[in-house]
Design brief:
single chain, 547 residues, three-stranded antiparallel sheet, globular
Length: 547
């Protein structure tokens, strides 16, 4: 149950193991958190500060695997981190050292104030004390889900969207199936199975409650702003601390625009409604941009679009939402396996853990290939007519072995507006990727609803022209879908109508949080030594194999 990255990963690993498996998703594939993340495939450097070493270690290792296997879809992302408090330098140096040791490579570098100012034009130089660089990765999260689903279906799995799991089928031996309802027709059916895995993310408690399970999820909202690249140009990701509360903020290039994020607040709205950014969150992020880049005078009117996602975090009652752990959790209750939490980067490890928990309920042995790459290797594909090698590489990363099914019509191998998305991608998605509504096509299969002004409204006539031959929609259905999409975009992806003055977030800037230096340094140094003891032998073996 659940068509996000966790559910897709479980479907892929189960199908590859020879299990007969069905995935059902209440809305669209990746509709929830998995299309609204920060688009980063990273180890979570900030988790080292909270001593979540296990989470960081596994994330860094999976990032390396995804970079190797997901060429064209997972791409390197250089990071720059300006430093203003001299006392932070040691902690950054130690943290980045641990980070690199975990990845078995040495990427980070330290810069002087003049050097970091040259690398980041229009940066706030008041009190600048230098900086660091490192490297992580980024992706189109929704396309990653689709790539994993494609591979799962090719391996024998089945995936259906817009089918809700409404109830559990319980027998004397426990949960042995679900009752499903088609969201479009209202038709219902009972699906019997040897085991049910509840991988519905922030919605995982809904079915657990039917078994009497206590609430475990603390839904946290992370919201983002997108600006035209010409209005807020950056050449690499820049990470800095918000002056109001010292939370990490990121500004980075993504899909030809500049993305700013993220917030981390409790989400109290109905989880079944599309999440949206609040005016307070917009002001909070604008304040961070104006304080860190005084030469870039962005305002609310410059925002191209916004998006907000709800993170499925296990609640422990911490006052600060950002202090909650990001580890995933497996719960087995009356024969149903529930899995939630975790990070986009570690989806394969989460899937394997969930299937190990499900294995005792199966009548046949479950043999998992834990050493297989997280994505299937791709066959060689020649460059497509009129496209560069880089564009072909990008398409291969997104569509995998199905890249050959994209149209080679020169008229369709042209970009949509100012994006890198090709008309051929919309045509392919409309024909092969289970499109039910127009927002499936414009917000998840492609991202032109985020990347173009007003959600790409000016392109909708051309979208209809290109996709009508393969979508079974008559003229009245197109009108309905267009009106529905534009209303959805206005209410949930455009900036809110009322935004507080961002200056209020800078009126009471918080001083750096001072920790007992001696203890902190000892613990940090011990962490570096422990990581080195584990990673250096691995690095030596890796170099020996390469040589």
């Amino acid at each position: 149950i659940g068509g996000g990255i966790t559910g897709a990963g479980i479907l892929r690993e189960a199908a590859r193991a020879g299990v007969r498996v069905l995935l059902v998703e209440a809305k669209d594939f990746s509709w929830g958190t998995s299309s609204r993340s920060s688009k980063m495939v990273h180890g979570g450097l900030r988790y080292l500060k909270q001593f979540q070493l296990g989470t960081t270690f596994h994330s860094v290792r999976e990032r390396e695997q995804l970079l190797k296997a997901g060429d064209g879809l997972i791409t390197p992302l250089p990071f720059l981190m300006p430093i203003y408090d001299a006392s932070d330098k040691l902690m950054y140096q130690l943290g980045l050292s641990v980070y690199d040791l975990m990845a078995a490579r040495w990427d980070h570098r330290q810069y002087t104030p003049d050097e970091i100012a040259l690398l980041i034009p229009r940066l706030n130089r008041d009190g600048l004390n230098g900086g660091f660089s490192t490297e992580d990765a980024q992706t189109d999260d929704s396309r990653l889900v689709l790539r994993v689903l494609q591979e799962a279906i090719s391996a024998g799995g089945t995936a259906i969207n817009y089918v809700r799991a409404e109830g559990l089928i319980q027998t004397e031996t426990g949960v042995r199936g679900i009752t499903i309802r088609d969201a479009e027709t209202g038709a219902t059916a009972d699906i019997h199975a040897q085991v049910v895995i509840n991988a519905s993310g922030a919605w995982v408690d809904h079915l657990r409650n039917q078994l009497g399970g206590e609430k475990r999820i603390r839904p946290l909202r992370g919201s983002h702003l997108l600006f035209p690249a010409w209005r807020f140009p950056v050449a690499q990701a820049i990470s800095f601390l918000h002056p109001a509360d010292r939370r990490p903020i990121f500004v980075y290039p993504w899909e030809g625009v500049t993305l700013v994020g993220t917030t981390d607040i409790d989400h109290d709205d109905d989880l079944n409604l599309e999440p949206r950014i609040s005016g307070e969150e917009v002001a909070y992020l604008l304040a961070a941009c104006r304080a860190q880049f005084p030469g870039v005078t962005v305002e609310a009117a410059d925002i191209l679009s916004t998006f907000a996602g709800v993170r499925p975090v296990i609640g422990t009652g911490k006052a600060d939402p950002s202090k909650e752990a990001r580890d995933h959790v497996i719960m087995v209750e009356n024969g149903m396996v529930s899995v939630t939490g975790g990070k986009l980067t570690t989806f394969r490890l989460i899937a394997l853990d969930a299937l190990r928990a499900a294995a005792p309920f199966l009548s046949q042995p479950l043999t998992l290939d834990e050493k297989a790459p997280p994505l299937d290797p791709l066959p060689a594909i020649d460059s497509m007519p009129t496209l560069s090698n880089e564009d072909t590489r990008r398409l291969r990363g997104r569509y995998g072995a199905f890249t050959v099914d994209l149209s080679t019509d020169p008229a369709l191998l042209t970009p949509v507006g100012e994006t890198r998305t090709l008309w051929a991608e919309l045509c392919y998605a409309a024909e092969y990727e289970a499109i039910v509504h127009l927002d499936d096509l414009l917000l998840r299969r492609t991202r032109i609803g985020l990347l173009l002004p007003r959600g790409g409204e000016e392109q909708l006539d051309r979208v209809q022209e290109v996709c009508a031959p393969v979508l079974d929609w008559d003229a009245s259905r197109w009108i309905i879908e267009r009106e529905r999409y534009l209303a959805l975009w206005k209410n949930h992806y455009a900036p809110p109508a009322e935004i507080p003055d961002w200056r209020r977030y800078l009126e009471n800037e918080q001083p750096p949080v001072r920790k007992p230096r001696r203890v902190y340094r000892v613990v940090a140094a011990a962490s570096v030594i422990a990581a080195a003891a584990v990673m250096i032998p691995r690095m030596r073996r890796h170099r020996a194999r390469n040589s």
